Every structure is written in structure tokens, then in C-alpha cells.
Amino acid sequence: MMYKKQIVQVCLVILLFGHFVESGNVGKLKVLTFNAGLLDASLAEDNPNITNNREERRDALIDYLKKSDAELVCLQEVPFGQDVEKIVKEVSKKFPYSFSQLHQSNGALPPQSTTKWDPSCNPGILNAVFTCALNNGCATGSETVRPGAEIFQCIVSNCLAEISALVATSGEPCLSCITTNSPQNYFTRCAGAPSTDLWNMNKMGLLLLSKKALSETHDVEFFPNYTNIFPQGYLRAKVNGNNLTVACVHAIQYLPYTLEFPPLGTDYPSYAAQNAHELQELVNSFKDVKPSALLGDFNVGPAALSVNELGQDNYEILTSHFTTKLVKDSTFSTSNPYNGGEFAQNVIIDHVFVNGDVDVLNAKVVLKRNKVSQGLPVSDHYGVKAMLKIKKCNGK
Fold it and tell me: Are β-strands 292-297 and 245-250 bridged in parallel, bridged antiparallel, or unpaired?
């Protein structure tokens, strides 16, 4: 067992030679979380005048990251390997370290845009699902937005044999490709002969960027033993050996229904119930990990001035163990042109939580005024940037 004096000496060494002094901000780390919404479909499901502008929004995000003073970035909804590659390469001078489900164990990202990828979906079975959907009026095939709940429910009701065969033969990569593309892209992005045009799927859509080296990296799916339509989870890493564990998180939407197949859909009859399980899993995994920081899109948040609550009971699963600094504005807003429909509201669902001797300072909404053509924002979410202050070194 180390004596207290030795522990203090070790802490001083970490502070002197670790990340924090090196960055010029002793004991501080600037973090950013942003749901980029880089789907290959229009984000505006209720506005036909807004077209698919994924590449333009991606490039605007890259420009923002190059100028940002953030030192650690958690991105959600970057589902395509080609986009992961472009972001990682373009910001590598600012963020030389990165991690996703596509990264190798040595931290390298294999080539994405120059590799001929096998199709995510079995072409013949996907065509059978598509034909059945058209014949039953579930879709027209000309949709420019990704399929919503009504389309999925119609397909499951009328084409269960076909969709079950697709799940059995192609699994989650195919489902991920379908849910992140518009139907008109299915046979160029998800099925066909091996090609560089086919998407290599970054299933959870998570990407971690860091100014300092990452170690002990892991990707964790919340339901690894189930076939998920929307696989969610987190990336876990330590930053520059300074004992700070970080998790880049995306939890399932808080909705009163589920589209998942049995047994997942049976065990959790709504996405709200599934969300509660996922957040409890985060608590179980990180409640004893100190110091730690969890940042991302948790899809729940409390009521605040001019902001509605969304799944506050689920949100309190997190706040019963972790602390946070709530931003003043909504991160998912009805004033955002991409957002509309039955479940659109002003909510704060993107957060930075900490555990142990860490404080969240100066949390604020960002990427709200950054625009692309037509005056549109970079995503249907806004980002959250905060300063983390580690109050003392942990001697354990």
C-alpha cells in the first residue's frame, strides 16, 4: 500500500508531465459533444423542400472542428465509414487521436473510401422486402428521407417473412444501412456488387476525437446479444494516461413504442423502457470509475425555463450518481428547421456528466448559428461544450 506522501508525489508527477499542464490549462479539459446527424437522407422528414445535404453539413462540421478549442470531441450519428475517414483525416492536425468501432486495436483506421466493400444487405432478399413494401403501400420507393415509424410498422405487419429473412441473412449492418439511408439509396449504398460506393457501417455511429493520446479503448453495445434495428452504446477510453476515463454515448430515443424485433422488443415494449435500461447500464459501468466523464446524446432531459422535460425519470437515473451542468438552451429545438412532427419539442437531451473529483464548468450550447446553404444548421441537434476541472488526483 502506498503512503499518503507517495500518492501526493505521484499526483504531482501526473500534473506536471501529463495532459493538463501540457495544454496550458492545469487540471482542465475542454470537451464537446455533438449529434452530427450524418444520415444519407434529408433530416427534415416533414419538410420536402429540404434535401439531403449530408456532405455539405459534414464539411461544415469539419471546418468548425478545425477552429474549435475543444480538446476532446464525442460525435454521434456518423454511421458511414467513408465519413469517419474524412473527418479523422481532415482534423488530424488538431485531433491526432481518434477511435470508433471501425478502428483497429492499434488505433489505426483502415482505408474506407478506397476499399471495395461487400454489401451490408443480401440484394435478393432486400429486393423482396422492397417489393413487398411497395405492393402493400408502405412506401413509394421515391422517398428522400429515411423510413419512419409508420413505414417500419407497415413493413413488419405486411412483410414479416421477408424482413425476418433479411435480418437472418444480413443482420445489424444491413439494418443500420437501411435506417440511415433513404429508400432510393438502398441498392447503391446497402446492396449490390462489391464497390467503393457501398457503405462500410460504423454501426453505433460514434466517433471520438482527441488532442491527446487515447488508451484502453473499447466499444460497448448495450445489447450485444440481440439484433438491434438501432444499435446503441458507447465508446470508452482513457485520455493521455491522466486517469480520466471518458465515455462517448448515444442512448436510444425516448419514445412510447418500439420497432425492435423479439426478443428485444418483447423484453422492452417501448424505447422509453429500453432507454431506462441503457442509462442504468451506464450507471452500473461507471458509478465506481473515478474520475470519469460521460458525454453524448442521452435522449432524456429535465424541465427548465422554456424547455420541456423528456423522460425525466430516466434522466434522474443518471443524476442520482453523476453530476452535470445543465445548459440554458434546448439542444433539440422546434426552431431548428429540420425538426417537426408529432414528437418535436424543445428539450435538453445532450449532456456532459462527471463522476468523482471533477466539475463541469461553463457548459453552453454551440453549433447553433453555424449554417450551410439555405441558412440551415449543421444538424438537427445543437452541440454542448464544457470545461472539465479535475479538482484533485485520485490515488486509488
Answer: parallel
Is residue 396 assigned to a domain? Answer: no
What's the pLDDT score for residue 148? 81
Buried b / exposed e over 383-392, threshold 16 CB at 10 Å, is bbbbbbbbee
Q: Let me know: does 205 contact 76? Beta carbons within 8 Å.
A: yes
Does the pTM surpass 0.90? The reply is yes
Residue 239 shares a structural domain with residue 172 = no
Among residues 261, 264, 262, 257, the alpha carbon closest in space to that of 223 is found at: 264
Neighbours of 14 (CB within 10 A): 19
What is the reported pLDDT for 45?
Answer: 78
With vertex at residue 154, the alpha carbon angle to CA 138 and CA 173, rounded to the nearest 5 degrees, is: 90
Which parts of the chain register pLDDT below 70? Answer: 1-26, 241-242, 392-396
In this structure, the answer to whether residues 36 and 75 fall within a common structural domain is yes
Report yes or no on 395 lying in a domain.
no
Does 214 share its domain with 186? no
Domain count, the chain: 2
Q: Which domain holds residue 348?
A: 4-115+200-390
pLDDT, residue 8, reads: 43
